[in-house]
Amino acid sequence: MALELEAARSYWIQAVQGESFAAEFKALRENLSLPEGSKIARFNPFLDDGFIRLGGRLQFAELSCGQRHPLLLDGQHHFTKLLILETHIRFHHLGVRIILAELREEFWILCARQAIKQVLHSSPLSNGKGITWRRNRSSTAHG
Predict the structure, then answer these.
(1) Does the pLDDT at position 135 exceed 80?
(2) Where are the domains of the chain?
(3) Is the Cβ–Cβ distance between 40 and 21 less than 8 Å?
(4) Model pTM?
């Protein structure tokens, strides 16, 4: 089951990258320079097993490959927002900094802080100041 989940996750990451960075994906695959005005050109991206990864100055750091070269994602894509929400829930509704730190273990999300804030403030569990607990009216005694 874990292998199937990982395969599905990989599929969706590649699909999102292909959708969000189609021109860049094509250029990288064909060993061409990135299109002018590319929003990811400054990150020195490269292809690794069909994934777009961040290049740059961490290549010699003593970190895991995923930390040295995180996967690039667009912060406005629906999948990325679901990933943010899943991380937020998995970390028991902690704040922006914790969610960002956890996501950066594996991903570089464009406009990440803004995307995380947007997801947290639009979550049905949050009122922008923390968790809103809703009481089920049918279960309260009226009297």
Answers:
(1) no
(2) 2-29+43-130
(3) yes
(4) 0.80
